[in-house]
Amino acid sequence: MWGVMGSYRDAWERSINSPNEFWGEAAKGITWYQEPSVVLDASNAPLYRWFSDGVMNTCYNALDRHVEAGRGAQRALIYDSPVTGVKRVYTYDELLDEVSHFAGALQSLKVEKGDRVVIYMPMIPEALIAMLACARIGAIHSVVFGGFAAHELAMRINDAAPKVVVSASCGIEVNRVIEYKPLLDAALDEASHHPDACVIVQRPQAQASMQAGRDFDWNDLVSAAAPAACVPLLGTDPLYILYTSGTTGRPKGVVRDNGGHAVALSWSMPNIYDTTAGEVFWAASDVGWVVGHSYIVYAPLLAGATTLLYEGKPVGTPDAGAYWRVISEWGVKTLFTAPTGFRAVKREDPSGSLIGQYDLSGFKYLFLAGERLDPETYTWASDRLGVPVIDHWWQTETGWPVAANLMGLDPMAVKPGSPTVPVPGFNVQIFTESGDRAATDAEGLILIELPLPPGCMAGVWGDEQKFFDTYLRHTPGYYLTGDGGHFDQDGYLFVMGRVDDVINVAGHRLSTGEIEEIIASHPDVAECAVIGVADALKGQIPRGLAVLKAGVQRDHDEIAAELVQQVRNQLGAVASLRQVDIVDALPKTRSGKVLRKSMRAIADGVDMPVPSTIDNPATLDALRPILRPAD
Ligand code: COA
Ligand code: AMP
Predict the structure, then answer these.
(1) What is the CA radius of gyration of the chain?
(2) pTM of the entire structure?
(3) Can you list the residues of the chain whose pLDDT is less than 50?
């Protein structure tokens, strides 16, 4: 099946056939206080671990060792914030100083190895400093995306049970100041877990009101703190928890370890992204998402590169030339973002006329992930930029790419619509619904044969069984990705979309089940369904359908508006739910399962036979003009 040869093929085969040798070699890319004698630890299979007896510290590898190697004066972090007009460069020396002082500040609040710290912050340097400070002292950070509402934050606070929460007075969405502190206070009122302390960055755009005894000003705390040293940790000690949407209303806490994570990300920088020490890497995402964790914070710094933290949007801050302005101003070699960002630019500047106004001579690669890269966006970007445009596929759970075109190892011809080939370490296989291997070109479930390589999730926080039940139970010996797709004759992987109730909205992962729970909690709603429908800008957006309880006589538009607002209040604006239709009934199978797939097909204008198991075909027909009024 493999049409792709050369060093990629050799590396991939070695990674699968001799994982101890392959990852043992890769582990030399980081500095250990004590080298691991075990590479792959299969003692508790199928729960595999990596580098179990190695001793190291992720923050040491991201900062101290570069300073010790004489690169303290090199740029580590560039903060570019068009929404505030601030630009600031931190050298490795300066970032190390900031991080070790904030680590000391956390210690002054009695934060120790293994304690959790929730970080709810906008895209400011303190977010990254707080994450690295936790890593430095072995505290486990859990970053919550700033676009989530108080209820989402409360759920994560309850699950992670942090000793300290770090936040800021506000975030800025283009020109709107979003006050974070009232959201944090509401979350803490709702949560059953109570952290000992909150540390707040007071930004000039909003002054947070502080609760005496619980809330501390970042600057006050840091100026009183002594710098903290790195705490030696086992390779398997957790570095962070990152919550992600699954098919239920409760987000899962993906746990990432220290050793495997540092090794995998260090390997990925030169081999996948062709980016090494001293070069500028820009992941235009948010620290609240996995892309932000891996490729704004950890990977570029582990590699000794310069990372760029951008507090702005692709459009509107101030225009659709923002990507090009930042690339040319800071000498960005590699940009990584979501296709939706490019669709936003293309919509405002269809001919790409703003590109010509900037010197992009240092720009070498555009990497895109987070959702399927539609061939039209691929063609638009690659025609106008004249650099390789690389689609690559991964998930919060994997932490780094499962499939990519490996620019530093063995660049291959691009096939639009495909993220190219499995990355070394990932033995990707396609299975049919009935559990057989799918033929070449045939659509199926995408599974990954165990063990997953270093850097992938080590478990679900506080619930080992859930990790097994959600990902490993489906097909023994394999990890269930939740995505569907196929391999073609040349061994290229095509990822076509989720096979479960997870949707991708502007590159953000959301659960329709979670949105349904919020709608269903409205007193007038008897039952509801939420589906992800195609959207030209955001890839997908959620749409709701609600059936009212018998006897409810209120105005339907009014109830629909309340439902939209309820989702915004509880989940956050990022859900982008704009439309809920009040309907008489939902189409169901004879066993009572709501036919979401059929409704989605109608909304997207896709031909799909009506399932033979349908109980009430007239209901589905009645929804057609609502789901797709133009037809
Ligand atoms: N804090 C508070 N609110 C936030 C937020 C944050 N960190 N992030 C987003 N929101 C709000 C937005 O302001 C918007 O609010 P609104 O409904 O009142 O307008 C809502 O959440 C939806 O946000 P988003 O889906 O991002 O839509 P948008 O219209 O603001 O911007 C894009 C659309 C395409 C420009 C934007 O999604 C983008 O830049 N995407 C590319 C990069 C990326 O985010 N990648 C993520 C994974 S790699
Ligand atoms: P997240 O966990 O938020 O990173 O979202 C992961 C999901 O995004 C995957 O399971 C896919 O459904 C989708 N995804 C990410 N990258 C790609 C890609 N390159 N092509 C297709 N889907 C993608």
Answers:
(1) 24
(2) 0.96
(3) 1-5
